[in-house]
Amino acid sequence: MDVIDKIAWIHLVEGEILSTRSIGKDVYYIPGGKREPGESDVDTLVREIREELEVAIEAASATHVGTFEAQAHGHATGTLVRMTCYSAGYRGVLRASSEIAELVWLTHEDRHRVAPVDQIIFDHLRARGDLR
User: Fold this and answer.
1) CA count, 13 A, side-chain hemisphere, 59
2) Domain of 85: which CATH number?
């Protein structure tokens, strides 16, 4: 079984979560991406968020939120994505990079608009009282 190893940034403001839609994609994803060889979770988080959103994650503030698995959206049946999620502070102004079509703020009502692993994360955050 193939597993895609991804790191994601959980950024919540007033009960809404920051999500992105990549160019050419039909669903929203929590920002983040795949680990490069030799990278730690936090190294991946810092690099991916800089690449996607043009802000600097404050690495020392990174806090593990949870690790979640589901069928990988757009991949063959049996390909899983393992999403290790962190919250963290940042410096800068959030803006979409050239690979990101749009930034949006979503609530649990938008669950149907996100990838399967993100749906599990949305449910987890809702159960904790963090996502409205």
Assistant:
1) 10
2) 3.90.79.10
